[in-house]
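Dear all,

This email documents one entry for the complex benchmark we are building for the journal club exercise. For each entry we list the sequence lines for every component of the assembly. Then comes the predicted three-dimensional structure of the complex as a token string, followed by one or two observations. Please use this as the template for your own entries, and keep the labels exactly as they appear.
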Amino acid sequence: MTAAIELVDLRKSFGSTEIIRGVNLEVGEGERHAVIGPNGAGKSTLYNLITAKYVPTAGRIRLRGQDITARKPYEINRMGLSRSFQVTNIFPRMSVFENVRCGALWAMNYRYSFWQDVDRLDDVNERSLQILNDIGMVPRADVPAGVLSYAEQRALEIGITIAGGANVVLLDEPTAGMNRSETDQTVELVRRITENKTLIMVEHDMSVVFGLADRISVLVYGEIIASGPPDEIRGNPAVREAYLGAEAD
Amino acid sequence: MSAIAPTSPRTGGTFLRRNAIWWVALLFVLLLPQVARSGTSIAVLNQMCIMVIFSLSYNMLLGQGGMLSFGHAVYFGLGGYFTIHLMKMASGGFFMPLPLVPLAGGLAGLLFGLLFGSFSTNRAGTVFAMISLGIGEMIAASSLIFVKFSGGEEGITADRTDLTSLFGIRFRSEVDVYYLIAAWMVLSAWLMYRFSRTPVGRMANAVRDNPERAEFVGYSQKHVRLLSFMGAGFFAGIAGGLFAVNYEIVTEETVNLVSSGTVLLQSYIGGVGFFAGPIVGAIVYTLLQTLLSNYTEIWAFYVGLIFVATVMYAPTGLTGIIMMHLPIYRAGKLRSLALPYLRIGVPALCCTIGVIGLLELLHFLSVRAVGQSTKRLFWLTLNVEQPFAWIIFSVLAVGGFLVARRVAPSVLAAWEAASLHAFGGRAR
């Protein structure tokens, strides 16, 4: 069986500084995988490589066996990979409902249609409403997204990401900047929406992912030093030293 | 923010009800000549309708797609040239009813939109603006180079009455042409509105707001922009075609940068954040141009002042100002604003009169004949060589401005109080 996402000796340098130094990773179909690591480990860079925001210096990225290295973002999205952003990245002048609908249009085959009325695309509108329901934002449907609170924008961000029904979902620190109860809600939301999907999640806060991830990889200075089920990672001495030790200081 | 964002009706209805406003608009423009009968007013209406289409097409770029173009007249002018050439050829006798010839302009606009859009829509922002300016200059220059096609400075002329008559209508009178133009206007406006409600139209907004995010939901920002660009070219071409039909002449003036500037100006004055904004802008601009020019030679200067004032004080345009008051009106709170508006209106009017007076006197000084020293202005005869008029206008201008600036905060506070009440504590 081919992996949902496969990274082969992936490298990325900015100038003479190598940030990602040969990452090999396989994430199986339907697996919830978390990449954790201390600040400056290269998590965001790795994330942006997988989602085609950056072009890798060397190495390959495969999505279900297909090489997606250096593909355009919209091509990768059309192949079934969807991502969220760490910095909230929505359509501020459009309503919440329309934000989610934009996420669903291409995947539901409306593509570059300029002859259909969006208000009459019942399947898209139903799906969008369903997504709004999932992220708990039905009451805010008609509000311009730009005026939402921070936590609401984060939830909407996830809503846009999953609206297209992609099978492989990447989330970039979905709980960043949230308090404990907001974090718990978001983790619950992520668990619900990634049912039967492949999830790759980059996270700084280790406690967030222990209950959620099937497997965890620990990234330190651009290399993966350990990969395995949460309990194994928790007990790994190298991880404790590199990550938990640093955290405790 | 919520006052700026267009609302999205998600509830459907019957075809008739959904499009009620369009039927009313059609009825209105068809009845208009019954009220405005004179030849001049029909001429003004014709120009207005053409400008409405042109501005709406421009807003497909600026307001809907976030593309600031300095060369949109390219598609207007080329549409005009292709239409007038078709009219000339059709005078030879082949079947071509006049109501259909603007389609040639639209097609030309579409194809040139595809051609120029294919390399200018990769990015929005400064790069797009610069390329549009370059193409605008290039085409304007070409129109004086390729004389065979453009007729040089004299332009190309044709006679619309030579074309195949349709049901016996030969479009000899201005009113006949008005009905033709008005019908095209309502149809074009409706189509452009429909376009904004299609998947591509919505994604044009999305790409405007956040191109990166749009790519990560599966859309190429370039392709979305290109489709808007071609649509804008098509309708600008239709407007250019109607220009050819109306004036029976197309010159370099239709395609040059002044024309590109005009469409930007009037769309912005009307308000690019609203579908109806460019319509309001085109109406107001045409009225200013045709009526104001009866009274003053420096009308273009005033239009420039209005544009600068709009950018500085009312960036949402005239439509934005109206929309700011709609919820207040609905809440029945408009009356509470009468007094504050009077308080700022009077000094603002004084300031305006003062500025106009000074400008007119200055202009008179620079163009007067030798020995001429009096000018009629505001029903007064003023002597420019005496300081009296200068002092009065200066006091009005400066004093009016200072008083208006002083009361502005309290007027703003009154508006905020009224609108807060109207929104009833809803998130703004």
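Observations: Chain B has two domains: 17-303, 331-423. Residues 331-423 of chain B form one domain.
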